[in-house]
Specification:
Largest sheet: 7 strands, mixed
CATH topology of one domain: Ubiquitin-like (UB roll)
Number of strands: 14
Radius of gyration: 23 Å
Helix content: 25-40%
CATH architecture of one domain: Roll
Number of helices: 14
CATH superfamily of one domain: Beta-grasp domain
Structural class: alpha/beta
Distance between the termini: 19 Å
Amino acid sequence: MQRSYSRLLGVVGKPNTGKSTFFSAATLVAAEIANYPFTTIKPNRGVGYVHTKCVHEEFDVKDNPRNSLCIDGTRLVPVEIIDIAGIVPGAWEGRGLGNQFLDEIRRADALIHIVDASGSTDCEGKSCKPGEHDPLEDVQFLEKEITMWMVTILKKDWPKISRTAENDKKGIAHHLEDRLTGLSIRKQLVNDAIRKAGLNIDKPATWTDEDFYRFVDTLRRISKPMLIVANKIDLPTALANIERMKKLDYIVIPASAEAELALRRAAEKGLIEYKPGEKDFKIATPEKLSVGQIKGLEQIKEKILKTNGSSGVQEAINTAYFKLLDMITVYPVEDIEHLSDHNGRVLPDTYLVPRGTTAHQFAYVIHSELGDNFLYAVDARDKRRIGEDAVLKDREVISIVSTNKRS
């Protein structure tokens, strides 16, 4: 299977919240998991999957996926996930190798913040009695750490940059471009942040320190969108904290990464039949399980899946891509009649692209040559021609016609 990555998803949080367990459950990569801070030093990378309803049933065909998988009518599109080492208060100043860890956030397009909803880890990530720590403090501290890290990057030479931007009229975003390159932040997002922060875009030199911080904090929110995974929902102290977290300005997903990891490993060994994200599973080989293992699985079913609807792990990945990043799926084919590529594979590829992507832009996603020679596209549902500026819809199936090929 070819891998077709789109945007990079970063898993962040303080140590000992279940971050690496979440990552392992999402990717089945054997990340080191332990009950003490800084277990993860170097970031772990792995492949997870976004789940979306496949179009093959609508067209009444049997598909032959190449860059993805199709299981029981669900298309699994591979995405890259990075497990970033735990961040502690003061990381932006270098505490706990903080700058090294924060640098890994540069490449992430969206963030999943793993929070210990039970309050059983203190601000340093050390174990404490469940309920002793307020997990809302973890949300606030991570916001501050990332914002202050960005402030240190953008503040250097700010007086000179802001005055120059005013004098040559190119705009402040133009002059911040070099500094933002490594952060994967586009100039348009800078302008959007300035407007949302209520600042004078033409007079950056007049901004106060408070104005500058508000601009950077706003830029963080829109350039590194984040959702909260309220982990450890199996502990009684988590429930009340989750309700409090839901009042924050974030999407909050209750989860048990530990339960999901147990289910995926059991499924990988053929012990149970389980599709990630589902609210139930079936024990396939009870004779291979001990009484204790069966009891443990049943507890996961009753206390996690039935109560919460799922473990929350797959829901978090889907939400990150479809809501935070606002992406859609598009299926390119060459033969519009048979919905196949040049090798006869039916609906072989699925791409995740940002909502608002045009047919011409999508051609470049497939291949630069196809984009350079783009003529028009054809909609597989009604066979109508689509112009270069036509905005694609979710689950669209199209054939792109160029001066030298169709795809």
